[in-house]
Amino acid sequence: MVGITQRRTGEHVNTNGVWDLLQNMEKMTVLSLCFLLCADLLDLAVGYLTVTIEPLPPVVVGETVTLKCNFKTDGRLREIVWYRVTDGGTIKQKIFTYDAMFSTNYSHLEDYRRREDLVYQSTVRLPEVRISDNGPYECHVGIYDRATREKVVLASGNVFLTVMSPPNNISVVAENTPAPFSRYQAQNFTLVCTAKGGKPAPSVYFKRDGELIEVISYVQPTAGDEGGASAGVRGARPLISRDLDDTKLQKYLSLLGPDGRPGRLYTETPGHSYNTPGQQGSEPSPATEVIPETVVSREFPRWVQSTDPLYYFSNTHIPQSDGSVLVQAKLTWTLNPQLDNDALFSCEVKHPALSMPMQTEVTLAAPKGPKLFMTPARAKVGDTVRITVQGFQVGSPGNEVFPEPLFTWTRVGGRLLDGSTERDGKELVLERVPAELNGSMYRCTAQNPLGSTDTHTRLIVFENPSMMKNKQSQNSGAARLDVLGLTWLALILTVTAELT
After folding, report:
1. Would you call the peptide bond into 284 cis, given omega within 30 degrees of 0 as the criterion?
2. Could you give the CA distance from residue 365 to residue 399 in angstroms, rounded to a whole number?
3. What is the enclosing helix (H) or strand (E) of 161?
4. 157, β-bridge pairs
5. Residue 345 half-sphere exposure, CB side, CA atoms within 13 Å?
6. In what order do the strands lie in the sheet with 451-459?
7. How do residues 415-467 score in pLDDT, each as one tens digit?
8. What is the pTM of this model?
9. Strand ranges (E), 199-343
């Protein structure tokens, strides 16, 4: 009986535990229902709002872009504002505003107890975009709070507009021009291709005679580096060092004069030569100097020749204030006038905004004899005479000589009118020429790294009639003074004789 009583007591305890569990579950159910009901009521009061902006592909300067802002809500629209973000997000500039209070182009939901989704789209057109339009944009959307109808609920989305700009100008120039020509020393030659206005930075490459040039990339030296233009190219070793072996060095030394200076060929200073010790030689006088014809120098040491030139390439990007990038590409190699004369070099620029590469080209060419023009055509004593280079005797207009030649003027057999031995420039000015310059010969030497050429012209000075009249009047006035003086002297002598 005792055992049975204990069992029944235990059963009674178990029954009470199940009852408590059921009561707790009932309380949780009520709380859950209350929570869900409150959440539903809150949702009905506030509503919901989601904003998304369609991504944009890169656009090219000058195109029209449409920014699209999509937003979904079950509330009442209040406003839409578009911003352009600048200065890293610190400044937001309004570019579009839509105020629903003063517009009827929206839906009114009278039954707030019924849930209904409305999809809206706001678009903003940017005509003829510029580089300055590049950057982030934001779309802010506001809806009314259902509880108060005065409070505004906001949501926003953002998109980045990438604006590309193709280069608007490309050009090729020769670095360090105008430059003289040297027959006795190989020179490093550099072409500089400049591409302006590109965003992002374009890729630049060189071609020779239509074939892509295989280049060796290097970093340009700073201004303080030693070695000049050859520093940074395989260390500080000059580009021409690979061609200078013992045999070629002897060939080079054979071209030097006895004092170690380069010898002169007939095309440079005709009629002059170096004399070896013990040999009697005499230089012809300037009056008997032989004046050669116009020639283009074509004699070069063998060690300059190279059938496999090495081309070194450097590339520099310089950011511009308008957001574009200026690209300077340099191509450097050891110039061989025999092989490089009349060679066609082109610079090509690739850019994602271009359907095909941009190209500009130049043809290396030595001067071919400048054409000289003298004004006035009939110079008189006391006139100012100008001798000007008007082009070249051989070559097509527009691209006659590249790179730019260096023009040097000298007077055969003497100094120039101002006492100098030579003068640079495309024009020689002789002010108030005297009669002593009649018959003088002037030489114009045009040279660039590919060659040099000489052209001569003779100055003929005629008598100036106005100066002759002045001289004659001065002479006649002096004669009249002399006669008057003699007359007075005779008178004085006569009076003296009578008095005595």
Report:
1. no
2. 9
3. strand 152-161
4. 139
5. 25
6. 423-424, 406-411, 440-448, 451-459
7. 999 999 999 999 999 999 999 999 999 999 999 999 999 999 999 999 987 76
8. 0.65
9. 203-208, 211-212, 215-217, 311-319, 325-334
